[in-house]
Amino acid sequence: MNYINNQYQLIKKLSAGSYGIVYEGENIPTKTSVAIKIEKKDKPQTLEREVSSLSRLSKIAGIPQIYWNGTHNGQNVLVMQLLSKDLGCYLKEYRKFTLKTVLMIADQLIQILRNVHQKSILHRDLKPENLMYHQRQIYIVDFGISKIYRDSTQKHIPFREGRPFVGTTRYAPIAAHKGHELSRKDDLETLIYILVLFLKGVLPWQHQLSQNNKERQKLIGEKKIKLSSTEICQDLPIEFQKALDHIKSLGFSVEPDYDYLINLFRKLGQRHGFEYDNLFDWCKEEEVIAQAKIMQQSEKMQPFSVKCQSLQIPSTLECFEKKQSSISNILQNPMQISQSAVIVEINSDTNLSDDSTNYLYNNYQQLENFSNLYKNHLLIMKDK
């Protein structure tokens, strides 16, 4: 199954979950990279739901583009935009993020969620692994358990109890633990929990010991209900507590005040003098690595004469000419002079390592010393 629709080739597996496998692939005609998501045969309809949601959300910043979808060997397949790393990957590397990075993430995600909600869609499973970074933009991915919460007349779905748990236990809103139908406020509550994790590196209900997932889900739900916004956001700027309080105060079908949340966090950033340049914590390291690679490639491609100029030392040819000019005037003590002279036999077009460059420079210094010695010798001879 290396080829999909005679157009896409599987390159390597990127990740696997309970619903399917994601591969890096290539669009063969255009030679461009893509992501290919293949659904497991025993997990039908999740990919169909994702395709439906992504189609509704097309052209929204922070939502990946669909290139093709269909079936292959009896499995549902989705070909979409290939993104960089997920934020969970960066979190494992950095343990936690700076306030500036978290505020920029919050700014982008609240705007994306507002646009998603305006299209009558709930994500219902936000988590660091479903948030991805690509070219200064945060993306929301994996709409496999998303849901339409309004019909074509904009009528909101009714509130219901006794619903099965939806989402990921660590980040799920309290409503999910209570078995309530989820709404817009619950996506935002989950987002605040993620932001707290990004800042602190840990959530208060992590590391709960339990016999099984169901018991763990119950224990975490009880702790979320018990903890106040102040306790959850302890040691963080007050704005995070205010945001969580606002979200928890909302009724089931009430539209969240997205502008209030955006401005709340932006004012916090302004107070700290942050510039929203979308240079996240990991960008600095990635740019340094990228620049280093560019410099290495440039060094490999540079002619040696250019390297000599950058080091402000003469080329090999100049060394030869200088030495030849000095030797041609030798009158006395040839043994002393011949012992001092060193000829570096290299091709001026050859690429040299730093050691080779240092070797050439040291030999040039010897030639300079030889030249000065010879000048002094001429002066002595002239006086005689």
UniProtKB/TrEMBL annotation:
Alphabetical list of InterPro entries matching this protein: CK1_Ser-Thr_kinase, Kinase-like_dom_sf, Prot_kinase_dom, Ser/Thr_kinase_AS
Domain Protein kinase: 8-275
Record-listed E.C. numbers: 2.7.11.1
Enzyme class: transferase
GO cellular component: cytoplasm; nucleus
Domain of life: Eukaryota
One GO-annotated biological process of the protein: endocytosis
Coiled-coil residue windows: none
Example GO molecular function: ATP binding
PANTHER family registered for this protein in UniProt: CASEIN KINASE-RELATED (PTHR11909)
Entry protein name: Casein kinase I
Taxonomic source organism: Paramecium tetraurelia
Lineage: Eukaryota, Sar, Alveolata, Ciliophora, Intramacronucleata
